[in-house]
Amino acid sequence: MAFRAALPHGGLLLPSPLSALSRLFELAGTAAFWQAVGNSTAHIFGGFLLSCALAVVLAAAAARLPAVRELLYPLVAAVKAVPVVSFVILALVWLDSHTLPLFISALMVFPPVYLNVLSGIDGADRSLLEMAAVFHVPLWRRLRGIWLPAVLPYFRSAVSLSLGLCWKAGAAAEVIGLPAGTIGERLYTAKVYFQTPDLFAWTAVIVAVSVVFEKLFLRAVDTLAGKAGR
Amino acid sequence: MEVRVENLCKAYGGKTVLDHLSFTVERGVTCVMAPSGSGKTTLLRLLLGLETPDSGRVIVPEGLRWAAVFQEDRLLEHLDALGNLRFVLGAALEESQARQMLKELGLGDAGGKPVRAYSGGMKRRLALCRALLAPSDALALDEPFTGLDGENRSRAMESIRRRSAGKIVILVTHEAASAAALEAKILRL
Fold first, then answer.
1. Which of A59, A219, B151, B158 supports an S-S bond with A117, CB 3.0-4.6 Å?
2. Helix (H), strand (E) at residue B10
3. Cβ of A229 under 8 Å from any chain B Cβ?
4. Is B48 within 8 Å of A134 when comparing Cβ atoms?
5. How far is residue B9's CA from residue A143's CA, in Å, rounded to a whole number?
6. Which CATH number fits domain B2-188: 1.10.8.60, 3.40.50.1000, 3.40.50.300, 2.40.50.180?
7. Residue B164 has pLDDT above 60, yes or no
8. CA pair distance A15, A13, nearest whole angstrom
9. Does B78 touch chain A (CB under 8 A)?
């Protein structure tokens, strides 16, 4: 009763946790819910994976070629400083609404992963690399024995930081771009029709999916680190 | 087979470390002796191709394979002894031979412990084991007995004597006794 008294307008502005939870269970029983989760995951996690791959390749190139490092420095600085919404609006002009969240989440992931991986590569033990060169250790074994253990802790922390970030930015891009059958679209609809329990339910879904993907991805990174350590 | 050094010069920040150094080393143990800071390690780095001389040159036979014990141990701390040997030797590592060699050097009971748990002396012996097991024609050994007690020092010298037959061995040390025990030629810088 006390909780209800604190919620004017029958929970229109702030729904009770119970109503949000019951709405979440209702939604989870529909195919459209899972389709929205699947579509958003494909966009946002796809952007994350693409960006990770590109960031690792470019960090490796930048570590080897000073020209690449110099060239990327202003770009990375700009991506870090420019507000996400500016990129979203700009990207809306260039891209269709389904590609937008992929692009935006990729953009959010790139700077932390690129900069962290570059730090890891820069921090790799030069004396071990010299030793490997003297003993003519092949590249693959150097990668596994020296580079990977040096880079993985940095990569792990970048991934942990950027997965949450890319879900936040990706969902925002969906809300602005309104690609059909996505979490962002459902969030927007909930806002337009004042369906605040839906708003909270979808927000909880974003948090849950983000946490699940973070845990799964970090577990995969830890497994890789374990293999490199053998 | 010989390694020739001609008029080698190297300076760091205006300080001359090696000044027109020339010598030739052949198969067998050659001991480079000099006071601390007189360029012994720099000389080894130049021989191994890790530094470029300011002038002069190092002439080595085509395809000469070096193995080395560096001034620092340079081991992969997260791996165990066999892991470190496998990193360098790859599929060429014969485990039974490696275990035998580890035993010879008093590392038989090190087991699967990662190197980070080793004492300084154990790391030094593992670095030596790696250099002796790696396929090579020449060995560059920079103070390989540092941190070893009398018994382990004797073991290490015995292993070098036994496993370096037919190779060029350049041993950097400031201990005349080690050079004498290995019947090394002496090269004073």
1. A59
2. strand B2-12
3. yes
4. yes
5. 34
6. 3.40.50.300
7. yes
8. 6
9. yes
CB pairs under 8 A between A and B: 42
Candidates A130, A135, A141; nearest CB to B134: A135
Residue numbers of B between 92 and 131 with CB closer than 8 Å to A: 130
Tell me if B76 and A135 make a contact (CB, 8 A cut-off). no
Residue with the bigger pLDDT between A194 and A122: it is A122
**Angle at CA A150, nearest 5°, toward A144 and A152?**
80
User: Where residue A5 falls among pLDDT bands split at 50, 70, 90?
Assistant: low
Per-residue burial over B41-73, b if 16 or more Cβ lie within 10 Å, else e, is bbbbbbbbebbebeebeeebeeeeebbbbbeeb
Pairing of strands B2-12, B55-59: antiparallel
Distance CA B104, CA B106 (A): 6
Q: Domain residues of chain B, as ranges?
A: 2-188
Q: Cβ contacts (< 8 Å) between B78 and chain A: which residues?
A: 149, 229
Whether residue B173 is predicted with pLDDT greater than 70 in this model: the reply is: yes
Mean pLDDT of chain B: 91
A133 touches chain B (CB under 8 A): yes
A137 touches chain B (CB under 8 A): yes
Record the tokens describing residue A57, joined without a space: 């390749």
Retrieve residue B117's tokens: 């748990």
Q: What is the ipTM of this complex?
A: 0.93
> Could you give the CA distance from residue A133 to residue B122 in angstroms, rounded to a whole number?
23
Which among B48, B65, B88 is the nearest to A137, CB-wise?
A: B88
- CB distance from A64 to chain B under 8 Å? no
CA-based nearest residue in chain B for residue A132: B88
**A230 to chain B: which residues are within 8 Å by CB?**
79, 83
Structural domains for chain A:
32-228 (1.10.3720.10)
Q: Report the pLDDT value the prediction gives residue B73, as an integer from 0 to 100.
A: 94
